[in-house]
Design goal:
With 141 residues, this protein is an alpha+beta fold. 45% of the residues lie in helices and 15% in strands. Helix 1 (2-16) packs across helix 2 and helix 2 (23-34) packs across helix 3 (41-51). GO terms for molecular function: DNA-binding transcription factor activity; transcription cis-regulatory region binding; zinc ion binding.
């Protein structure tokens, strides 16, 4: 059952971050596992409260901070906006951000990955990590 998966995986994530496992923190981590978008802290809080009404703002913010500080959660500030979150365990991808709607889309391009490695090698480097964010407007026909 999905709840069992999130409980065991979520508990492991919380322990790895050095956090005590509580119902409130489990609700927060469950939200992160279920997220198909890049929620900000307020969105995580609202969604977590749908799972457990006792989740406090302080608990949500501290949990997100602890997970990010341990590298278990990525923080994104697309175009200087609010901080958004996604689990670090997700496979590598890049982001395309619609500057008019704020929509964030994920994409993977082997061609771009190859080009980045080639450019780094030309300068005598190996890539250890990177982020690519493309800020775009929809084409008008």
């Amino acid at each position: 059952m999905a709840g069992d998966f999130y409980s065991s995986e979520g508990d492991a994530v919380l322990r790895e971050a050095g956090l005590r496992v509580t119902r409130q923190r489990q609700a927060i981590v469950r939200v992160l596992f279920e997220a198909e978008d890049h929620p900000d802290a307020e969105q995580v809080l609202v969604r977590a409260r749908d799972k457990d009404a006792s989740v406090s703002q302080a608990t949500a913010y501290r949990t997100l901070g602890a997970l990010a500080d341990k590298g278990l959660l990525h923080r994104h500030m697309f175009d200087g906006g609010v901080t958004r979150f996604e689990l670090a365990t997700r496979p590598h991808h890049d982001h395309l951000i619609d500057v008019e709607s704020g929509e964030v889309m994920e994409f993977v391009s082997d061609e771009i990955e190859c080009l980045q490695r080639r450019i780094a090698a030309e300068y005598g480097y190996d890539i250890v990590a990177h982020r690519l964010e493309l800020y775009c407007k929809k084409r008008r026909s």
